[in-house]
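Help! Submission page says 'invalid entity' but I think these are all valid:
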Amino acid sequence: MSKIRVLVGTKKGAFILTSDGKRQDWQVSGPHFAGWEIYHVKGSAVDPDRIYASQSSGWFGQIVQRSDDGGKTWNTPGSSPEELQGPGGFPKGESNKFAYEGEAGTHKWYDGSQHPWEFKRVWHIEPSLTDPDTAYAGVEDAAIFKTVDGGKTWQELSGLRKAKGNLWQPGAGGMAVHTILLDPKNSNRIYVAISAGGAFRTDDAGKTWKPINRGLKSPFELPDPDAEVGHCVHRIALHPSRPDVLYMQKHWDVMRSDNAGELWTEVSDNLPTDFGFPIDVHAHEPETIYVVPIKSDSEHYPIDGKLRVYRSKTGGNDWEPLTRGLPQKDCYVNVLRDAMAVDLLDPCGIYFGTTGGQVYCSADGGDSWNALVHDLPGVLSVEVQTLK
Amino acid sequence: MIRVVLPFHLRNLARVGEEVELELAGPVTIGVVLDALETRYPVLRGTIRDHDTFKRRPFVRFYACKEDMSLEPPDTPLPEPIVNGTEPFLIIGAMAGG
């Protein structure tokens, strides 16, 4: 029988929730890295026991952790004794070194002036679809890094910041590459999303990148209706069977592109508010997508205290609220951009975590929900592994 | 022998107890102690000071014999009680936040 492993990053550590394929009885392990902010934990599709975690702290900076046994034990990559001595006996210990390539340069600051790029933390780690030792890291200040040695060292794909990076500007939460989507049908194609830079695509494995923001409208943040970059994209998602079709939750607006981001059209339709953070796609129905509407950019909680996931079975538009099992009064949590994921079982399981520390699961494609845990620290990210 | 006390989170990261001991030769300065600490525990690189510039992280402080030495340059000699191991060199996560 299949097994499900849910990887939860929180403000005070990582937790691993496991169940059999029935998804009824859950075991919780953690906190791993207790007391540290865990922005993201994600396993390799090639080797599910290989899991990467981004661990950070305002005091002590960035740490990258890696497990090679499904989360039972963890090490910073390259920490075996024979790997630690560099030339001249100087210690390596570079798994947490994210150095911008060349002159770091500047980006737009809150007041419109230019501000130097400064590494702060890793928001998202996306393991390669074909090699467990290769992974991509989306970082704040916004850039993408790549490792080909299992996280021992990281090199910037600096072409991304050449895509008008001087015009990117931090939002209230900072300026980070928070979404990395690898095209399963074209190994040279990667999509990223940046708050507040927009969406970008490379077709040459990361050497060069182009903004893909045509059709996005952000009149309150970007008065220029034709602004090529600077949009506050909160999340993009794709279905692996159809990687040219993208879905986007923007700061405001839910959007869709049918041509790899060349043009976006709005599909918010009847949503009660089109502000939100996560968006995800059903594992077996490429036109079924999920969002969690949030009242506004000033009020980061559900409307009327009712936590509702909205589902569209038509690839956007014609949204239906999903409420069974979710709190329908006095609920004022948020669901962050990396805190929703799906499993690969049939029926598909949908998972999301809240800033109030709950992780919810629907084992029936969203029709009904159960809280797997109620009282974790605020959830920053949720990923799901479907294990044989 | 130099005694170094690490903050809670760095102890866990390096998988050591509250205090570590370092054997050093020659003049004992802040920089020499940090070099030796990172050589012995490479996982601490980047957590106390920057990988390349060696600039102290803003919320990390250094104390020696009840004196705050955080703002002293790295080549500052440490007091004799630190050098002879009578007193530990303290690396502290600064009180910050609410």
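Support: the input was valid. A stray whitespace character was the problem, and the output above is from the cleaned input. Chain B touches chain A at residues 7-10, 12-13, 38-39, 42-48, 51-52, 57, 59-60, 93-94, 96-97 (CB under 8 Å).
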